[in-house]
Amino acid sequence: MARIGLFGGTFNPIHRGHIAVARQLRVDFPLDRIYLIPAHIPPHKDRGALAPAAHRQAMIQLALAEIADQGLLLSDAELRREGPSYTVDTVESFRQAHAPEDELYLVMGADAFLELDAWRHWRALLCAVSLIVMSRPGPGSERNWETSAHWKRLAAYACERLDGAYRLLAGPFRLEHPHLPSIFFASVPAWDLSSSQVRRCLQGGESIVHLVPEPVAAYIESKGLYR
Length: 227
Fold this sequence. Notes:
This protein is of the alpha/beta class.
């Protein structure tokens, strides 16, 4: 049996925070491997600044080659499909490609989680896969979960908008349901870093070598991306 993480996003471009979070999640849960899955056409994001899929895929390949972590892999599952990249379709494709006993975990940020009820076939998604919701809850929240407004906000959303049978538990922090897979909460490093920040630096003529792996910075420069 394998424990497999599915980490989707635009990766526009991939940065050091993406890599650090993925490596931490592998240890914390633990996961045998995590697939980074760049979206072809993200249905919920502005596509104006989106680099072509081939470039985003190439940058992920360069980043993963630099760290040489065999537990982090690139998947082109969404790039091979035409049209918008709906997560429910991606999860289904991974389920069909893996053994029934393998456990799938869909990785997402707290902001995305709080919009889950607007996703395509979100009820089917909750039935098909466990979630790992990445968040930065602030000092002390990891210990004082019962009084943490942050965790309670996520739990309240799940109970009010997704299913009233979810219950917030600790050790690890998660939402348990009598019939659906669990929703896990993961405290991630407070990286003050985003792909949009990388793009702003490039547009302002600033160096990005501290934000992205060096081969990614060189690729962006050679292709003239995000100018």
